């Protein structure tokens, strides 16, 4: 039986949605409706990836599974949307790993500063056995992890001064994601970390509640952070994966054939999303410069110093989530670098 299809009010939203994404399917013809929501806006490659997922699923199920897409935290922030998945009142969301760690603590490992040296290594570890194992743990939390997508390497922006070395974090009030490791790492660097949902961030920067934040280039540019931030630094201090999540109850209720279709579609749309994300990075950097941001390039020495400062925090969390498991992750990162 289908929990979420065609309640009367879906029709209007579906029509709106179909118009926006150019799709012809409607929820009226569908047996299953997937409400999919993300926190970023509709200019971000993540939303483009979601539209790709929609197209594949609707085509392959001949419209029997309809995907309704929402962006800009219309359905809530990362934590709220995950809770909705647990209750099966929303079917899909694609949060960063950092907020997922509040549900499955092992996800903290992917947010260890400077863990992944580049995107290719991240792909191999995430798409490999380790990444898979962590996705499996989501089932205990009533969610199914179908694929890793990409948020990207996180960089710092602020309104006070250029951040060139570790010392420049001193005294900066920085918004962080709601994740204990992020909080502790930025404290260790001397910043005043302020955890907050992404949807509140722009206003917080605008009103000066926080001096700055850290996010990948696509977000900094496409969410117009340059309007309220003067300094950008390519710290690349952590690689932030996205995870494509589905309500377990909804997934379990799908026929086998449709389970395969949504799984493959999440992976395929994810490949497209990663590609779009990576392609745009260089352009976004020059866009930020054109918009008047001061760009600071961080040296490898400065990154090494930042890493050294936060290493005790990393070691604490490694202990907490399981030293053996974390060693396996380090080994997988090394193996991937040799390939
Ligand atoms: C953050 C993350 C976000 C997301 C998204 C809004 O800073 O980087 O981009 O997780 O869902 O909160």
A few lines on this structure:
By secondary structure, the chain is α/β, with parallel strands linked by helices. The chain folds into two domains: 10-151 and 240-280, 3-Layer(aba) Sandwich (D-Maltodextrin-Binding Protein, domain 2); 155-238 and 282-338, 3-Layer(aba) Sandwich (D-Maltodextrin-Binding Protein, domain 2), CATH 3.40.190.170. It is 47% helix and 17% strand.
Number of helices: 13
Across the major sheet, the strand order is 2-1-3-10-4
Q: Indicate the CATH architecture of the largest domain.
A: 3-Layer(aba) Sandwich
Query: CA-to-CA gap between the ends?
Result: 46 Å
Largest sheet: 5 strands, mixed
The CATH topology assignment of the largest domain is D-Maltodextrin-Binding Protein, domain 2
Q: Spans with pLDDT under 50 lasting ≥5 residues?
A: 1-22
- CATH-wise, what's the superfamily of the largest domain? Bacterial extracellular solute-binding protein, family 7
User: What ligands does this structure carry?
Assistant: (2R,3S,4S,5S)-2,3,4,5-tetrahydroxyhexanoic acid
Report what the structure shows.
This protein has 339 residues and is α/β, with parallel strands linked by helices. It folds into 2 domains: 10-151 and 240-280, Bacterial extracellular solute-binding protein, family 7 (D-Maltodextrin-Binding Protein, domain 2), CATH 3.40.190; 155-238 and 282-338, D-Maltodextrin-Binding Protein, domain 2 (3-Layer(aba) Sandwich), CATH 3.40.190. Helix content is 47%, strand content 17%. The chain has 13 helices and 11 strands. The chain has helices spanning 10-21, 45-60, 78-87, 97-100, 119-126, 129-137, 180-188, 201-206, 217-222, 248-252, 256-290, 300-321, 323-338; strands spanning 32-37, 65-70, 92-93, 143-153, 155-158, 173-176, 192-195, 212-215, 231-233, 239-247, 294-296. Helix 2 (45-60) links the parallel strand 1 and strand 2. Helix 2 runs antiparallel to helix 11 (256-290) and helix 7 (180-188) crosses helix 12. The longest helix is centred in the last third of the chain and has 35 residues, at 256-290. The termini are far apart. The structure holds (2R,3S,4S,5S)-2,3,4,5-tetrahydroxyhexanoic acid (TF8).
